[in-house]
């Protein structure tokens, strides 16, 4: 649930970066073209290091890994700042009570064990013994309690407060024990404790969280600590020898702030950064077409926990008719979108969960591309082309609607163009409108003033999707903006939240996905892959990528001495 | 006319514009493919016999899109300049003919408009309205009439002092008759030059707006949004950036050459040698 919101913000962030960058793109392109020509010349000559790069070395410590991130964090307290850059850096510095193991099951991080009481309303966490902050002070349940109080404090304005506000009472009876009480059973609670980045009470107590110097000079307990931060340029992280999970292999991590993906890629080619996330074009076309790049980069792909969809405003005609929704679903060729927009780096889905995980219903298959069936369904719903203009109508009214999507997201823009084309073939007219992200949300999504949208959901690891589908979540600004209202689904979602047993829960969410499938309140377009390129000098990376993602065990990565940079080029 | 044909700049400009106009007008007949036909099996193919200018990120034929995009760009240029010229001529004529407070009001309005950076004004207005061809044409038209106003006013200031104008006023001709029959026809030469140059900048503006996603909306093609699509692939699909870039260059160059040529031809000082 919390992750879901984070992902929304991540989209916003991405978008703002795009618009801000317009001014300098011209310059960057020119420089970019020059650089790439120069590079191509030098890189085409056989690289004597290539052989060394492919040779496996034993795990060792030391070295500096340089990575790139698109925006400068606003502060180090991600739970307060509420933006992805802060949370990403925070993940290097702070621990949570729980975490997810490589198969995405819950595991203890600060907590050694956790117990759900029989009435399912109380969770007791036991902390590991001997935990300490990077400055040597002990990390106790008092710190966890303090962090919880901070997040739910009205004055903090944390965007992630709601999950933690469900806790009616929290207590820390001794240094090792942390107990939370809920008014009613709430299964997604466990996941929320895997997201709360625990902050040190002895540094923050009594301070104003919005102005504290801690946000610039943090103190954590995780693998790394912040050594230097040049705003807008880079953040230098140094290994924390007192890390509660044991020290990481790599000595220093430098996160360079490079907003433009094209500029990041140039730096990757020039060997100035070691890793970056890629778009499908770079992953599937550019890198494979350049042997010099292939020789020094490893590419990783992992199925992301998100999907793109075409959503209907169910309160408007004609989308209140299930036959029309199904017809549109049959009329869209999902594989065409995956091939055309994601260059094959995506998969079609039939339930709102990551395929292959326990929550995704294996008995459902995505709606096939079947224009004949689509036309048939439209005819059943009373839509026929009576005047021969190629567009179907009912009672003299054309079946025509507007599809909105956010400006600057090229993949979504292309998706709408493909959809428009396919829908026209079955006699449905669509108009495309791309809007700036903030304007799309405030002027159209919040007031519910739209016909259809192409957007995406980034999901949490917990299967609870109450806020997206429950009929009570239709208010302005809430996530069920398509206006889905189905008592059967409401009931399943309520049951799912109360159920802690994984097997029973799984059945509930399989049933839920089945109802959605039959109802077709939105068209699942595709679940895309997260794509990463990492320089071959970084070894010890799990391949194939585990479900938890490529960075899951980055503390075990290492830089073999012969492959390290001779000098750090962070400036 | 003879002199226009003897001016090398004007002739070159005319040729450029002629070719582009012809191609755009004939687009539906000469385009080998439907400009909006998505072919996911043929994404980003370089120029070949089958696709002269290659295909774009959705497998659409770039040559066909360029032809149809040209229609949009040129249409926007012509209509926008049409609007600005009509406004400019009327306001300029009023200011130059009546002088006094009419002149003051209109010229201060011109000053105000000129002091606002027009591209940002257009950006703001388009973001406020919704982006569409019609809006782009109207907004460009409404924000670029100032130079025409100044030109026409200056011409009118001198024309109203001339004998034939004074004569017709003395004979009791009505204001509108003096303005439209005597002054206007004699002040149109500099306007013609500025119209031609105005089209060039309107074409550029439209491409800029479409490049930023605020002009012509997909799937309709315009040179500006073909360029935007190309930006994403500039590292290896050069044809998506080169051809629309060239088309914009040739068109703008064509109009500018023609405009300069016309100025030389009509400017009496350039013939005194």
Number of DSSP strand runs of chain A: 20
In whole angstroms, the N-to-C terminal distance of chain B is 20 Å
Q: Name the structural class of chain B.
A: mainly alpha
Element order of chain B: H for helix, E for strand: HHHHHHHHHHHH
Measured as a percent range, the helix fraction of chain A is: 25-40%
Computed over alpha carbons, the radius of gyration of chain B is 22 Å
- Quote the distance from N terminus to C terminus of chain A: 38 Å
Residues in β-strands, percent of chain A: 15-25%
What is the residue-averaged pLDDT of chain A?
86
Q: Extract low-pLDDT stretches of chain A.
A: 1-48
Structural class of chain A: alpha+beta
Number of DSSP helical runs of chain A: 19
Mean pLDDT of chain B: 87
Description:
The complex is a heterodimer of chains A (571) and B (273). Chain A has 571 residues and is α+β, with helices and mostly antiparallel strands. Chain A has 19 helices and 20 strands. In chain A, strands 11, 12, 13, 14, 17, 18, 19 and 20 form an eight-stranded mixed beta sheet that branches. Chain A has a four-stranded mixed beta sheet with strand order 1-10-9-8, with helices on one face. The radius of gyration of chain A is 25 Å and the shape is globular. The two termini of chain A are 38 Å apart. Residues 1-48 of chain A have low confidence and may be disordered. Chain B is mostly helical and 273 residues long. Chain B contains twelve helices and no strands. Chain B is elongated and about 75 Å long. Chain B starts with a helix and ends in a 7-residue tail after the last helix. The interface between A and B is medium-sized, with 32 and 24 residues.
Task: Tell me the layout of helices and strands.
The complex is a heterodimer of chains A (571) and B (273).
Chain A lengths: L1 H43 L5 H5 L9 E6 L8 H4 L2 H10 L4 E3 L5 E3 L2 E6 L5 E6 L13 H12 L8 H5 L1 E5 L5 E6 L6 H4 L8 H4 L19 E7 L3 E6 L12 E6 L3 H9 L5 E4 L1 H7 L4 H6 E7 L2 E7 L9 H10 L2 H9 L3 E2 L23 H10 L12 E2 L2 E2 L1 E7 L3 H16 L3 E7 L1 H9 L6 E7 L7 H4 L17 H12 L3 H18 L2 E14 L36
Parallel strand pairs in A: 1-10, 17-18, 17-19
Antiparallel strand pairs in A: 2-3, 4-5, 5-7, 6-7, 8-9, 9-10, 11-20, 12-20, 13-19, 13-20, 14-20, 15-16
Helix pairs in contact in A: 1-9, 12-14, 13-15, 18-19
Chain B lengths: L1 H5 L1 H18 L1 H4 L31 H37 L1 H16 L2 H11 L4 H10 L3 H14 L3 H8 L4 H37 L11 H9 L7 H28 L7
């Amino acid at each position: 649930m919390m992750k879901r919101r984070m992902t929304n913000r991540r989209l916003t962030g991405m978008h703002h970066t795009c618009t801000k960058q317009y001014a300098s793109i011209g310059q960057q392109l020119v420089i970019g073209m020059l650089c790439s020509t120069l590079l191509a010349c030098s890189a085409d000559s056989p690289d004597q290091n290539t052989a060394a790069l492919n040779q496996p070395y034993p795990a060792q410590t030391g070295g500096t890994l340089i990575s790139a991130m698109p925006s400068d964090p606003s502060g180090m307290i991600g739970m307060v700042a509420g933006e992805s850059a802060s949370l990403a850096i925070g993940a290097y510095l702070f621990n949570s009570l729980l975490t997810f193991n490589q198969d995405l099951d819950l595991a203890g991080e600060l907590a050694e064990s956790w117990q759900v009481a029989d009435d399912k309303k109380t969770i007791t966490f036991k902390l590991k013994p001997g935990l300490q902050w990077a400055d040597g002070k002990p990390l106790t349940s008092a710190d966890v309690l303090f962090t919880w109080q901070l997040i739910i404090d009205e004055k903090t304005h944390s965007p992630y407060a709601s999950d933690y506000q469900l806790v009616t009472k929290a207590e820390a009876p001794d240094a090792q024990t942390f107990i939370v009480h809920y008014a009613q059973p709430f299964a997604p609670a466990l996941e929320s404790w895997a997201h709360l980045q625990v902050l040190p009470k002895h540094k923050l107590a009594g301070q104003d969280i919005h102005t504290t110097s801690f946000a610039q000079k943090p103190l954590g307990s995780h693998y790394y600590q912040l050594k230097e931060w040049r705003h807008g340029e880079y953040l230098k992280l140094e290994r924390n020898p007192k890390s509660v999970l044991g020290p990481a292999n790599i000595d220093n991590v430098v996160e360079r702030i490079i907003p433009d993906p094209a500029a990041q890629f140039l730096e990757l080619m020039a060997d100035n950064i070691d890793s970056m996330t890629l778009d499908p074009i770079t992953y599937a076309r550019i890198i494979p077409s350049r042997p010099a790049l292939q020789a020094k980069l490893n590419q990783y792909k992992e199925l992301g926990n998100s999907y793109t969809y075409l959503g209907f405003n169910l309160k408007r005609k004609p989308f209140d008719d299930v036959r029309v929704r199904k017809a549109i679903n049959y009329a869209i060729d999902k594989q065409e979108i995956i091939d055309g927009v994601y260059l094959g780096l995506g998969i079609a889905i039939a339930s709102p969960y990551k395929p292959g995980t326990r929550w995704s219903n294996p008995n459902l298959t995505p709606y096939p591309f079947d224009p004949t069936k689509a036309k048939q369904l439209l005819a059943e719903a009373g839509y026929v082309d009576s005047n021969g203009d190629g567009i179907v109508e009912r009672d003299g009214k054309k079946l025509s609607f507007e599809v909105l999507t956010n400006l600057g997201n090229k993949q979504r823009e292309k998706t709408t163009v493909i959809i428009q084309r396919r829908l026209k073939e079955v006699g449905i007219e669509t108009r495309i409108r791309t809007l700036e992200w903030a304007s799309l949300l405030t002027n159209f999504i919040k007031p519910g003033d739209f016909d259809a949208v192409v957007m995406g959901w980034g999901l949490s690891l917990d299967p609870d999707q109450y806020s997206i589908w429950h009929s009570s979540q239709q208010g302005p600004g809430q996530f069920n903006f398509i206006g889905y209202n189905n008592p059967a689904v409401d009931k399943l979602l309520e049951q799912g939240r109360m159920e802690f047993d994984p097997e029973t829960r799984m059945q509930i969410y399989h049933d839920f996905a089945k109802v959605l499938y039959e109802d077709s309140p939105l068209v699942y377009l595709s679940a895309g892959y997260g794509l990463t390129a990492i320089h071959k000098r970084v070894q010890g990376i799990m391949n194939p990528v585990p479900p938890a993602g490529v960075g899951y065990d980055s503390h075990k990565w290492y830089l073999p001495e012969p492959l390290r940079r001779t000098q750090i080029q962070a400036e | 006319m003879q002199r226009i044909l003897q001016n090398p700049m004007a002739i070159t400009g005319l040729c450029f514009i002629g070719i582009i106009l012809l191609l755009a007008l004939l687009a539906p007949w000469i385009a080998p493919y439907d400009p909006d036909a998505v072919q996911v099996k043929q994404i980003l193919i370089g120029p070949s016999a089958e696709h002269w200018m290659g295909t774009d990120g959705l497998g659409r034929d770039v040559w066909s899109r360029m032809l149809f995009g040209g229609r949009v760009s040129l249409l926007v240029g012509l209509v926008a300049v049409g609007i600005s010229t009509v406004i400019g001529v009327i306001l300029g004529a009023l200011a130059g003919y009546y002088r006094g407070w009419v002149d003051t009001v209109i010229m201060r309005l011109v000053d105000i408009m000129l002091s606002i950076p027009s591209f940002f004004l257009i950006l703001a207005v388009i973001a406020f309205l919704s982006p569409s061809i019609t809006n782009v044409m109207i907004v460009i038209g409404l924000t670029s009439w100032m130079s025409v106003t100044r030109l026409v006013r200056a011409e009118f200031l001198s024309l109203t002092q001339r004998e034939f104008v004074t004569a017709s006023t003395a004979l009791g001709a009505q204001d509108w008759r003096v303005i439209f029959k005597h002054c206007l026809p004699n002040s149109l030469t500099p306007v013609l030059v500025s119209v031609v140059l105005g089209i060039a900048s309107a074409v550029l503006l439209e491409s800029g707006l479409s490049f930023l996603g605020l002009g012509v909306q997909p799937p309709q093609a315009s040179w500006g949004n073909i360029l935007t699509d190309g930006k994403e692939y500039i590292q290896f699909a050069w044809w998506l950036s080169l051809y629309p870039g060239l088309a914009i260059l040739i068109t703008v160059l064509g109009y500018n050459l023609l405009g300069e040529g016309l100025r030389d031809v009509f400017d009496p000082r350039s013939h005194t040698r």
